[in-house]
Amino acid sequence: MGNVIPKNRKAYGYDYADLGSVVNYVTEVLGFRVEQDIHYNNLPQYPNGYGFVVTHYWQDFSKSWSEYAAPVPIIVGDSAGKREQPFMQRYGSAETYARRYSLLTLFCLATSDDDGQLAGYQRGNPMNEELRKQVAALLAQGNIPAGRESEAIGNRIKMPVNYARLTDWQAQLFINSFKKNEEVKEAA
């Protein structure tokens, strides 16, 4: 079993593993107890920075907690271009993000396809307009809610995908999976 945590949430157009699933993996699979704290200091300076999340751990055979490690800055963005959110909600999101990435960094963990689809590398040609229409029709036929397209397509073709970056090949796999189902139904 590798140190890869499956993604289980979707927001803002991408999939991610939430903090709870990362903590569960570290405690249940790896067998560590963890604590996280926020440290405030002046160095290094980050614009909109509000301290650092640091993590330390205890394993059953240890005699004490580890030193604090894996500092991740809490950087609170503004609401420009997004729906308006109060500062505390934006701070809470930034803190949760920092906690998750502090754990992932400390234990050298990754979430499934952590950088594959979104790192700028595109496998194959982007889906053409005709395929996009066919995929959209199949998603509508399946009553797939907006924002869940990547998950539905990925589950169907058994690979992680990003609907916005779907390739011709991935779209064709998705469409063909429905055609095969229809052929099986007709033969029965």
Automatic annotation (TrEMBL):
The protein's superkingdom reads Bacteria
Q: What organism does the record attribute this protein to?
A: Bifidobacterium adolescentis L2-32
- Its name, as the record gives it, is Erf family protein
Q: Which Pfam families match?
A: ERF
> Top-down, what is the taxonomic lineage of the species of origin?
Bacteria, Bacillati, Actinomycetota, Actinomycetes, Bifidobacteriales
InterPro entries xrefs:
ERF_bacteria_virus
